[in-house]
Fold these 2 entries.
Entry 1:
Amino acid sequence: MNTPNPLPLAGVRVIEFTHMVMGPTCGMILADLGAEVIKIEPPGGDKTRTLPGLGIGFFRSFNRNKKSVVLDINTPDGLAAAVELIGQCDVMLENFRPGLMTKLGLDYATLSRKYPRLIYVSHKGFLPGPYEKRLALDEVVQMMGGLSYMTGPAGRPLRAGTSVNDIMGGMFGAIGVLAALRERDSTGRGQEVQSALFENCVFLSSQHMQQYAMTKEPPPPMPSRVSAWSVYDVFTLAGDEQLFIGAVSDKQFITLCDVLERADLAAEPQFASNALRVAVRPELLARLADILKHHRADELSAKLEAAGIPYAPIVRPDQLLDDPHLKASGGLVPMDTEDGPTEVVLLPLLMGGRRPGVRQALARVGEHTQEILARLTGRAAA
């Protein structure tokens, strides 16, 4: 998808030593915004390309708009080529286990002596501190960072249903790159940026930490929470269809009762205000459930939409491929891959009326090796 004007990061060159989700997400954001992102893959390609099960979509989702170069950085020639390529780049990204890049001489301390303008981004499990040598996964830090406790019912911690910290960790890495590029404009020097899964997860939990700091009461898991609103729940409708409905003000509650043709419910003194309704919330929800089980989801949704009541169907990820809003708004666009065309989700950004999109097919393993290595001293594309 071509854009009429240069993208914001046009002219910025990024070299990426990453795999899985966190580092690739950072690189994809920068690539979508116009940077030339060179993904270094080992011989045979990034193993993320062939993950099974829930990992099967990782590579397609987080590696678009990049160039693929195959280098064996465990050999002297491959390592030398990598170092020379790094010197031609503004930004380097990595997300390998602690100590690996230092062992190879690809750590920031070593490279910055040779390339002082380099912005070096490490995506790790933990920022420097007592935990920094630990290996981490998204699920590990969700357990450590309060997210699993808050997500599952009491006594049953439950991870979020997607790679929340990996994706957001990549986002924070990209934010660090943007800030470091801006700072380099004034100082002339690069710097090391670090983004970490654990600290990301703690940031997600920070509102609950402050809740405790203010009330001295540990926050209950979300399924056990005392809602601030009386009508804020998932209801089962006719045909076992489900719909979330949220009436978060007195006006919305009255409107909901009108939509359900139950003005008598709104007129009951015990339901006169949100505070009163919260006090008898179980009774109110039971009565609403009895009413709503006779309504069809499609008919009720149209009425709620017209009345301005917040509602949502319970949607599976596969159903989003046909979501009319995503298609009409340009948030879901085609991308060519070796296995044929697919549709991918774009960054949730609109910049000056345009959506940063897909500019090239998903790179094949080593597709751009000759092109990129031809830039190196004494080398030419074979």
Entry 2:
Amino acid sequence: MRLAFEIALRFLKSGKGQTLLIALGISVGVAVQIFIGSLIQGLQISLVDTTIGSSSQITITSESDDKTIKDWKRTVYEAQISSPEIINVSPSLDGPASIDYENDTASVIIRGFILEDADKIYKFKNNLYQGQFPKNRGEAIIGKELAVKSGTEVGDNIALLTTRGNVITLKITGLFDLKVSSINDSWVVTDLKTAEDIFPTEGVTSVEMQVKDVFLADEISRQVAYTVSENNLKVDNWKDLNQSLLSGLNGQSISSYMIQIFVLVSVLLGISSVLAISVVQRSKQIGILKAMGIQDKDASLIFVFQGLMLGILGAILGICLGIGLLLMFTKFALNPDGSPVVPIYINYGFIALSGMFAVVTASTASLIPARITSKLNPIEVIKNG
């Protein structure tokens, strides 16, 4: 085996141009895999984070006549213990209202939260661009679009008309921008006690949750539904409510896998053909080695070792090239604000797997010339050489 390795290394060194060509072919394949795979992963993570990363992924609501969850503290506790995958839980009391501004009226939703719990889901504090978080009863924050069209600034009081005909005054302590116009345009966010003053009721209208792995939300929601004890509760999850988004993400994943498979097949065929030609070119040397007593097994191992070494070299070059392409993409493909068009997600496990696939593919490709080598007749090769 050691002899076969040394001969393989000598063959690679003697044909430096051919060796470099094969290694570059493998490296380009690996680089394409890493670039396309990381780009699509980054796009998916960015898309998921934008659409559901800062929102409720599992929501419990009531189907009772008044649409409220009566024993909500128990429901929150039961939801928390239903699965270790649940990381954030926030009760909410919501109700419609309207706000007058200039000569028009706008419909809004008053959302009462336990603010510290809700902030873990919606990231209100991180998205406040003016003012501060509500600290006292009767205070609230509103979105950017609602503030603009109503002419409201931090420190102003806004008058809200509820569906019961009550006029409620709230002091605006901050303005947020969650990057979702429908939320910025309609949410009035306050604490749960203030919402209870506005909508006197026993209970909350929903319990919202986030999970560690967003793609397991449907499975976890079934566990939550099984665990909660109050009657007439409905448990929804983002996957059931966003089938079109889920279909798009699946389509991206499938296209990524197909591209990577075709790249692997092209690398496999390219290496096999080049090494097969190498067998013909070196048939006289192989014949002489066999005539000197080298066994068929060792002769075959020469090309297996060649494939292995070419795979390792190509994988290393490809990983460097792929990471370089990703870094270049983040420098040149930019939004007007200077941020990358697609934030790149570097998954070291995926990069290592791509390199390993290249080594396995190159080693597999070498089996064809290895088989040809094992069948060479040394006498005929030397005689016709």
